[in-house]
Amino acid sequence: MSTLLRLLVTGTLACAGSSSWNGAHGQAADPAFKVGYTSSSEGRAPLLVTFHASAQPTYRIEWTFGDGASASGTQVQHTYYRSGVYTMQARLLDAQGRLVSRAQGTIDVQSGGPERSELTVLLGQGQVRLSTVDSVYYSPTTPKLQLDSQPVTDRPVRLSDGPHRAVSAGVTQDGRVQERALTFIAAPFTGSLVYENEVLRLTNVARTHGWNCATLKEGGPALPPLKQNATLDVAALAQSAGMALAGYFDHVSGLDGSTPMRRVQAAGMQPSLVGENIAAGHETPAQVVDGWLRSPGHCHNIMGDFTLIGLAYVNRPGSPYTRYWTQVFATP
User: Where are the transmembrane segments (predicted)?
Assistant: First the structure.
């Protein structure tokens, strides 16, 4: 039986922020008034921004976002649906509503490209989860999901064997319905918790013993063990099951076109960094982990600065490689 290995480290969603939006107004200005924000480093519309401010608790903070919307509070969220440069202002008011201090700054929102509906299919044992993650709409629309013509949410749905049709749809800024539809096949497969636990154990042995990816032996810096994460397990299982059922071997899903980062986001996590190791055909956990450790890129994922891991082993006789292995790494 031939075997395959493949790896990917992809995508960052690092926070960007500012604490320099400090302004003063008159003699009553509060030097403790500081304003900042966090958002996706992509900076693309529709862009969700979290604004935060620090000030004395007796004061009230009012925000204007530069697009006609406003809010109040020490921490607020706002979505910029269209690209442009927006002037944000935060006003610090005392108990009588008098202006004490003011801070101002700009938010540069880039275009997210053409409006589109995305659809991610996370296959599991007898169930599926659908997601609209990475859809782009320049209006406050809520994308809808359907499975076999029935409305569903992003929660797991029981799935019978056979063909299924999934649809993601939303309304564009000019009122058109934008949708994406795809069909997929659900079929039985088996897994092994024992195998997955052994992959985790061997992976953490390599980390704690300081496996050196250059010399291919122990003796490098020891690293803390990775912690298994249930959300990453969902993304890993979707990849292993997708490869087994849809007949592809790639980090980009042949089922729905999703990347490792998108699958992790669809499973419910917003990490700063994601990596993925995949393998096919290996018969035992020892074989697959040894293969990964002796492949530089795979090894660097295992010995990287990740803190969390998801694991999935799928066995499907009759598929091209029968056995499919996935490790998903993430840093929150």
Answer: none
Could you give the CA distance from residue 89 to residue 33 in angstroms, rounded to a whole number? Answer: 13
Report the SS3 class of residue 208: helix
Residue 103 backbone dihedrals phi, psi, to 5 degrees: -130, 145
Tokens encoding 42: 């992509």
Tokens of 220: 């490098």
Q: How many other C-beta atoms are found inside a 10 Å radius of the C-beta of residue 218?
A: 13
Alpha-carbon dihedral 287, 4, 127, 121, rounded to 10 degrees: 140
Annotate 67-91 with DSSP letters as a single string: SS-EEESSEEEEEE-S-EEEEEEEE
Record the tokens describing residue 50, joined without a space: 């979290």
pLDDT in tens, the chain (332 residues): 345 555 454 432 222 333 334 443 333 445 678 888 888 767 889 999 999 998 888 899 999 999 999 999 999 999 999 999 999 999 999 999 999 998 888 899 999 999 999 999 999 999 999 999 999 999 998 899 999 999 999 999 999 999 999 999 999 999 999 999 999 999 999 999 999 999 999 999 999 999 999 999 998 999 999 999 999 999 999 999 999 999 999 999 999 999 999 999 999 998 989 999 999 999 999 999 999 999 999 999 999 999 999 999 999 999 999 999 999 999 98
**Do 61 and 74 contact (CB within 8 A), yes or no?**
yes
Q: What is the number of other CB atoms lying within 10 angstroms of the CB of residue 326? A: 30
The structure's pTM equals 0.83
d(CA 274, CA 258): 13
Q: Which of 157, 88, 70, 87 is nearest to 122 (CA)?
A: 157
